[in-house]
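Quick one, T. Sequence first:
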Amino acid sequence: MDRPVAGPLSPVQVIVPVSRRRATMQQVSRRYDDFIIRVRNFTSLYIPCHRKTPARNDDDATTSGITLDDSDKRVIRLNEPQVQKYCNNHISTAKYSVLSFLPSFLFEQFRRYSNCFFLLIALLQQIPDVSPTGRYTTLVPLMFILAVSAIKEIVEDIKRHRADDEINHRLIEVLQNGQWHTIKWHELSVGDIVKVLNNTFFPADLVLLSSSEPQGMSFIETSNLDGETNLKIRQGVPTTSKILETKDFSQFRGTLESEPPNRHLYEFNGVLKEHDKQAVALGPDQLLLRGAMLRNTAWIFGIVIYTGHDTKLMRNSTSAPLKRSTVDRLTNTQILMLFFILIILCIVSCIFNQIWTNEHFKKDWYLGIGNLLNKNFAYNLLTFIILYNNLIPISLQVTLELVRFLQAIFINMDIDMYHEESDTPAMARTSNLNEELGMVKYVFSDKTGTLTRNVMEFKKCSVAGSMYGVEETPAQSLLVQNILNNHRTAPTLREFLTLMAICHTVIPEKQPGDSMSDIQYHAASPDERALVYGAKKFGYVFYTRTPTYVEIEALGVQERFEILNVLEFTSTRKRMSVIARNSKSEIKLYCKGADTVIYERLAPDGVAYRESTLSHLEEFATEGLRTLCCAVSDIPDDVYEDWKHTYHKASTSLQYREQKVEDAANLIETNLRLLGATAIEDKLQDGVPETIASLLEAKINVWVLTGDKQETAINIGYSCQLLSHSMDLILLNQDCLDNTRSCILEHIGNGRFDNMGRKDAALIVDGKTLKYALSCDLRREFLDLCITCKVVICCRVSPIQKAEVVDLVTTITKSVTLAIGDGANDVAMIQKANVGVGISGVEGLQAACASDYSIAQFSYLRKLLLVHGAWNYSRMCKLILYSFYKNICLYVIELWFAIYSGWSGQILFERWTIGLYNVFFTALPPFAMGLFDKVTSAEQMLKEPRLYAPSQNAKLFNVKVFWRCIVNALFHSVLLFWLSYKIYEKDVIWKNGRDGGYLVLGNIVYTYVVVTVCLKAGLLTNSWTWLTHCSIWGSIVLWFIFIFIYSNIWPALPVGAVFTGMDDMVFTTPVFWAGLLLIPISALLFDVSWKAYRNSRKENMLTPPMKESRSSETEGYRMVTPRGRNEQYEELA
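Structure tokens:
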């Protein structure tokens, strides 16, 4: 995850000499009061009048700046009943309850237009004498489809209920009436004092009071919250850390005030007000979150502040934004068009019905149709709507859902995308976008942890103007030799190594008997761990941390530093500082951060190594190394005492606490003396250059959005072959809107262009310029410049800028975009893109949890897009087109029969065969296409990225292709009906001269339709497996078996009386068998010829032909089983 970029300097940030610091401290209270007044004035001017009146106490607001009154602030009484009723601790992640399932499920299902349409048809069929197809031929298939969806929802929700019950019924010790009782988690209440044991989860959000460790320290693991497996320190405040006995807890009285429940995992503001004691500030260091686990600590005592769905874990359990694929949207549009055509068809049929009746009621008086003249036009319209309703496939939605679900399983079980080292498989977190993976035109990638490994290694440093590397032992290092030889730079070298050893929040782990070399470090970020290991390589070993001091071994000499304050790193500050007192009682501020932030805080006499360090920084960046500047400042005792009160007031404020703490930090982080800089290597992940080369060859544009320095980003661009040395580099580093505009306009149209109209150039933009480029005035021009360049790299960008860039391209170009990242700062762009891919990285699972698909390595993106994406797009397109084809092929025959039957609305087929056509007889071929069909093998797809073009450019499914398929279906329906009608025209098709009636014709036509659409599925299939054979030939056999059974069940079952003996009538006529051979072949002759012609064209010879006809010859899916992922994996054919 890239480090966030700092925002503009705060209004009260100043740089003052030491002599003026004390006076500055005395002014800070007035600064805070002025700041609050300004914010309140702004609030009163711009916040709508229905907002509550601002409170007078400036401590009565959350950190977000929203003013609180007494009803907003949570006040928890200690060891007393709570005045206000809070949320209970029962949690539920299930979608449904027993009572809510039916209404909620039906609401979700009938939000789909197709289901509403078929429900309308089913209701119309209940009107007497309206439906020509019976009362239940639509209702029963609709109920079946809804039942399948309901069973799927129920099965998934039962799993959620069971998981919830397991959690809600866990046990916890709680103090009640002066005694400890064991209760279930869901019985916990706000204000309860609980005891949590080692290696157990926290049952709610707690404030840590005391623990088994000295000074109330405890260690927690938050992997369930953010994916980080390193241990973190939490510490009770001094006033509660000594409360260990039950009687002391029983006498614990007062109130705990906190901000309302919110979703910010790393933020908390509260105040503990014990009776007759000074108020104590509570912050994130005292917060124990539900979902975290207690580690390396025997027990802790805590007080419950947020329960159930008020906990931060549950507040973060929000669903990702709903995304729909391009194919889905186009399908819905075409369904709407088909519906309008259906209505027009019905109106035309009604008109012809009236015309025919008027012409024949006198001439053909024996038909008794005179009474039809008085029939209502709308009545006839309803009849024809019911007759033609199946033009829209009723089974399409459930087929799509099931196929996508199984496609997602194939992605999850692909062994080629399984990372054995971290035991991480690929995971499709949604199945709605499987085909969207085959249409990607833009990939937006984070750098750190995505292109690189995010496994940091300290490589070299610049101290006092000299560069030093790492040797095998400290004694071999020139830096250590200079210290031992009392070189003139030795004091600066000692300060530099001291800063590396103590300016961090790393936790050392040392087992009894371990030497200094065996110490393991747990850090919040890989950078911090790398710096501590770097100090260790120079002989400065950090080995002890307590809440008040740290201990290091400096070249064999043990030193203790009292930690007075830790000013933590934030995305705005972009630096971290530690104020420490050494053994000489000197107070020093050690600060490390980005060069731009440190340099502007240097004292006039602290810039001795400014230019040489800057030169070394540029050299480090050119090598692709991550850099930090290091500086120190001496703080007089009286200045520190004044500042300490200021900082305490800021840290105990409930209103605007972050801003006040930042302002206070700005006051002390001044007049720094530059020590040097560090350089850390973050290597590229395996396969990144090859993956990017394949994506570029597939005409996918790759943009890198990073928070790193420009030089580092450019160097990584060359390393991963995103940039080539033949490219021109266009650098946009402007400091105002006008300069940015002129620079963009200057480069548009200039430069060398390739045959695709693109510049042979890379655009490099920094975050400051990007702010102007994304303004309303320049957005379009900036995008035009970006599109004309082969590569775009945005440096020093903030998370919101990443999202803005993705949104700009997605909105204006209408192309399918994909964003990939590994950290929390990538979540915004992942959710903005059409497809979001998260890397399960070192920095946690925030990105993976917010993504649509998660993978362990960037290189797996190659197979995810070029293979699974292209395959799934092709499969879904064929499935959708085939579903419409087979429906129109059968049900338009009712229109042709209407011409023959005087537009009477009479059905040609037996009513139950109409309803079972989609659900039974032609249901399997679409599944076979959607799951097993592929244009070519995975190896060939990876070898020839150009094969991605048909799916990327929507060649397989667009308006033209859709209506071509519809016309093809109409053509087939014409041949299937009228040829069958011609052979049956004289009614006599048996040698005994008997007449079978219109149902014989109907079943003959129905048989030819089933055979034709199944053979058509074979023509559309590129890859034949044994399952494909079963689905196609099995469907045909299934219809013949059905005819035999259905013809003989009456009167044993009171259904199908008109079908009795149909097998004898159909199967005993040679006309049927002759037609079975000739008519489907005649219908498909044009299709076969067209496919042969297309396959013979030279431009289509790029796709290697698939000549597989047996499952043994078909490439199997290489899959990983859910269990035993480290065992031997087998291939699933």
